[in-house]
Recover the amino acids of this structure.
């Protein structure tokens, strides 16, 4: 007899609880993925320099005669200098990123867009990195039409025309891909490279060849350095708690 | 029911349908529209032969602002004879300055189109004529209101009876008159036509002749694949619908599905009718949304291979054109400007 009176409220209670717990299980996952929280007390830095030794290929004059409006944008000859080497062999435009070691950690994409500009019938920057889901913004600052074409293989390949004065293009890449070659379908001398990574640990070397990956959780990592002409190199790094790793990565010419 | 009753009934039915057709059947002697050099004979529907009175009525209606709800917009407002029967705007402007979503196509040579509108949703000029009248952002007036307004005008009543015989003004009569007038708006006899169809080898400049090569060469401009040049005439269109990726927003999505909106066929997504290129140098801006301001921009758009999307036409791919190729192509397109009927004089002569 008493069992019956207990059973009914118990059922109701159980249904309510299960409904509630279902909800609490689903909602946070759907709304905000479990992004990895970097602990500033234990995170460290992977820094380094990319250098080049040997005979570098000579910069080549870019022939813009196919579009005189492009040529007119330049007072002097434009040089294409893919292996840009500074003092003491510092190598610019190398893309450095953590290739392995972050396991399944998920990182929130930054809200700032990465911008590429088509200016002087040239892409700037030549090499850029962005995170999966981060906004990729394409400007046309030129008085001519461009047609940007990222030749993605893992992500979706696309191309889109931009007339002079057209508003910026806003795109995203949904999967990691290092690297995506970018060309302009109209001006065959224009090229750029995009590295898409699913975490924030990537950098492009400037003229000093230096790079810094900040706020890296301690761990064992494989970092990769990519260069459009010189290829790829890997390096194993162990980062201790709140540590700093310094490395020199060297490419050799012929 | 006897046989006799059946026959009477059939006769009555036939009578009704015949009266319906006769109601908008033009009277008077048909006229022949002179075909300009480079164009075929203009097609005329069997149920609406061209007569001088019909064309004159159509011309008047074409300029009639009372076809719009606030008496401010006529067909000629957007299809302006002074602007090659277009409006020079990116998209059409209707009553109260309301903007449409598509570029006004010229009426010149529309008589040859396999279907009207950018998306081909009207099969004939007659069917087309009534549609902008009721469109809210164009003339915004019901067909009934058009008929009522015109019927209150004795001059119109007389003009309609002169063209069609006794009977009330009907929408069918209005549409047939407008279409008849539009069939006289033919433009040919361009420098290209003189060169190609009259054997005048001096009609085109050296640059334009080279441009014609770029235009037809499948490995260069590949333009003539869709903008067709025939052996005896050139309409500069294949009468088909193609997707170039025009009208893509900054996120890479098509903003106007074109023919798909009416056909519902997936492969029609983002496809629009190939426009003729006659008088193209005079009818900027370009494309269905007027998004390209100049012909050099149009050429650059094609050089880039359009905008990628799942239904992009197979013929759209990046083109390798030198600076000279582009200039030559422009010279050729310039040579497609033909003689323009003013829309004032009566075209055609008695048969």
């Amino acid at each position: 007899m008493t069992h019956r009176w207990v059973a009914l409220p118990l059922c109701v209670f159980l249904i309510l609880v299960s409904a509630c717990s279902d909800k609490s299980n689903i909602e946070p996952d759907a709304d905000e993925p479990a992004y990895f929280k970097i602990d500033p007390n234990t995170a460290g830095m992977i820094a380094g320099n990319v250098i080049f030794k040997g005979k570098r290929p000579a910069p080549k004059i870019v022939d813009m005669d196919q579009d005189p409006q492009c040529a007119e944008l330049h007072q002097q000859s434009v040089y294409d200098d893919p292996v840009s080497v500074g003092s003491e062999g510092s190598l610019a435009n190398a893309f450095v990123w953590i290739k392995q070691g972050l396991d399944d950690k998920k990182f929130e994409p930054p809200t700032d867009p990465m911008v590429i500009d088509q200016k002087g019938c040239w892409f700037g920057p030549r090499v850029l990195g962005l995170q999966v889901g981060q906004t990729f913004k394409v400007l046309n600052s030129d008085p001519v039409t461009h047609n940007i074409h990222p030749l993605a293989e893992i992500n979706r390949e696309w191309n889109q025309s931009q007339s002079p004065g057209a508003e910026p293009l806003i795109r995203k890449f949904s999967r990691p891909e290092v690297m995506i070659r970018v060309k302009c379908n109209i001006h065959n001398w224009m090229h750029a490279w995009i590295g898409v990574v699913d975490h924030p640990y990537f950098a492009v070397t400037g003229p000093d060849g230096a790079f810094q990956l900040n706020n890296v959780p301690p761990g064992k990592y494989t970092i990769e350095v990519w260069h459009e002409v010189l290829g790829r190199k890997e390096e194993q790094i162990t980062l201790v708690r709140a540590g700093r790793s310094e490395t020199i990565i060297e490419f050799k010419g012929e | 029911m006897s046989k006799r009753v059946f026959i009477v009934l059939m006769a009555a039915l036939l009578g009704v349908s015949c009266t319906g057709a006769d109601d908008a059947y033009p009277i008077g002697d048909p006229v022949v529209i002179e075909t300009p050099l480079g164009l075929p004979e203009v097609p005329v529907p069997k149920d609406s032969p061209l007569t001088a009175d019909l064309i004159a009525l159509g011309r008047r209606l074409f300029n009639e602002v009372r076809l719009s709800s606030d008496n401010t917009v006529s067909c000629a407002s957007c299809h302006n004879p002074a602007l090659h029967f277009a409006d020079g705007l990116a998209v059409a402007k209707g009553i109260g300055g309301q903007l449409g979503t598509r570029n006004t196509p010229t009426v010149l040579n529309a008589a040859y189109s396999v279907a009207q509108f950018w998306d081909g949703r009207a099969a004939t000029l007659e069917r087309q004529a009534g549609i902008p009248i009721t469109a809210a952002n164009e003339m915004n007036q019901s067909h009934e209101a058009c008929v009522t307004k015109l019927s209150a005008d004795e001059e119109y009543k007389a003009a309609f009876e002169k063209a069609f015989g006794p009977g009330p003004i009907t929408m069918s009569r209005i549409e047939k008159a407008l279409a008849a007038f539009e069939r006289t708006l033919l433009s040919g006899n361009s420098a290209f036509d003189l060169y190609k169809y009259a054997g005048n080898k001096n009609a085109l400049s050296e640059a334009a002749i080279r441009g014609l090569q770029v235009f037809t060469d499948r490995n260069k401009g590949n333009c003539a694949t869709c903008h067709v040049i025939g052996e005896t005439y050139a309409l500069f269109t294949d009468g088909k619908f193609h997707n170039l990726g025009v009208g893509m927003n900054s996120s890479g999505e098509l903003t106007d599905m074109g023919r798909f909106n009416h056909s519902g066929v997936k492969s029609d997504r983002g496809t629009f009718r190939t426009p003729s290129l006659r008088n193209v140098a005079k009818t900027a801006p370009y494309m269905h949304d007027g998004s390209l301001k100049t012909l050099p921009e149009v050429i650059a758009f094609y050089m880039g291979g359009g905008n990628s999307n799942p239904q992009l036409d197979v013929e759209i791919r990046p083109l390798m054109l030198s600076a000279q190729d582009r200039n030559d192509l422009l010279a050729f397109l310039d040579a497609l400007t033909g003689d323009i009927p003013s829309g004032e004089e009566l075209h055609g002569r008695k048969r």
Q: What stands out?
A: Residues 68 and 144 of chain A are 10 Å apart (CA to CA). The radius of gyration of chain A is 25 Å. Chain A touches chain B at residues 65-68, 144-147, 149, 157-161, 163-164, 167-171, 184-186, 188 (CB under 8 Å). Residues 8-29 of chain A have pLDDT under 50 and may be disordered.
